């Protein structure tokens, strides 16, 4: 099949060339949204890691900026990996993990700081804390926030020496000197060998601990991807640095392509999230059709996070600025250039939404997403939702689709590729 929808998205963040993955250092700073991301500008593999940079005034139109962070010092010479940001006294603090490959082939990681007064030019400050005892070199992805007590906290994804995934909490009074408090969620032990990209989201009623545990056993309808992103609702104790879950483990996105999200505060103190619309198998990744155009992967659309009954709900920040193509039932619409949105208010007990490259089936109050895998050429499925559906919002942007069910109570992200320039959607 000759895929034709290989153009770059209209409102999603993507690389002009090379490979993009985890969102990094997300921040609203001096009147602009800054989205940094893991970036290999040399080719479409994961062999090299710098930070890319895009800015926006509205989370819809993005400007590519100069590359702000590249491997250059002894502590990050083999990769500038993921991390977060914090603004203090009109200065932007960017935290990241530097990787070093030693002469014997072993690897070391360093938690590093870079600062900026404008968001464009970063000054490296070097490592800011020693490697914790009892943990492998897999300690990474610093996220920093300020407590209600005025102190600063850092969460770090980690792996114990006995290969158990966890997260560590550090505390600081000045963002430079950090003290280890202990493990963030000591009451939880998952069958996982590494917890990546931890985030603590503090909403009105509860705190939410978001993380990406690697190695979770697959279940019939959960954790079906290579790696998944999950969360707990609970409470973070600023005195101990511990998070206490109040709920079972939940999956943050039910689609095929979502990983390593990061959450930051917007200008109205709203919580905004981006994720990497990726995490395929190596074989699937090497076969992604856009590689023929010299680029691969996008971020999700910006999503506004809210809470409902100890659950996170998410809606795209931008849907009202997009044209809703149809709210009719039993209809067919053509989405020009594979970019647009459609809102459906289902009335029937059974229905389908059929497109050239994917389809949704709703039967027995179960919504299933199906697409053709571009590598195997075989259909693959995800059970996205069980229950009554009142409203379904579908956004499409070239080769990324996102489903928002019942005002964002469940979200699913998926890549798709088709030989059509325009895409038809049939509600049957």
From TrEMBL:
GO terms for molecular function: beta-fructofuranosidase activity. One of its GO terms (biological process) is sucrose metabolic process. It catalyses: Hydrolysis of terminal non-reducing beta-D-fructofuranoside residues in beta-D-fructofuranosides. SUPFAM superfamilies: Arabinanase/levansucrase/invertase (SSF75005), Concanavalin A-like lectins/glucanases (SSF49899). Pathway: Glycan biosynthesis; sucrose metabolism. Pfam families: Glyco_hydro_32N. One of its GO terms (cellular component) is cytoplasm. It is found in: Cytoplasm. CDD domains: GH32_ScrB-like. Keywords: Carbohydrate metabolism, Cytoplasm, Glycosidase, Hydrolase. InterPro entries: ConA-like_dom_sf, GH32_Enzymes, Glyco_hydro_32, Glyco_hydro_32_AS, Glyco_hydro_32_N, Glyco_hydro_beta-prop_sf, Suc6P_hydrolase. PROSITE patterns: GLYCOSYL_HYDROL_F32 (PS00609). PANTHER family: BETA-FRUCTOSIDASE. Belongs to the glycosyl hydrolase 32 family. Enables the bacterium to metabolize sucrose as a sole carbon source. This is Sucrose-6-phosphate hydrolase.
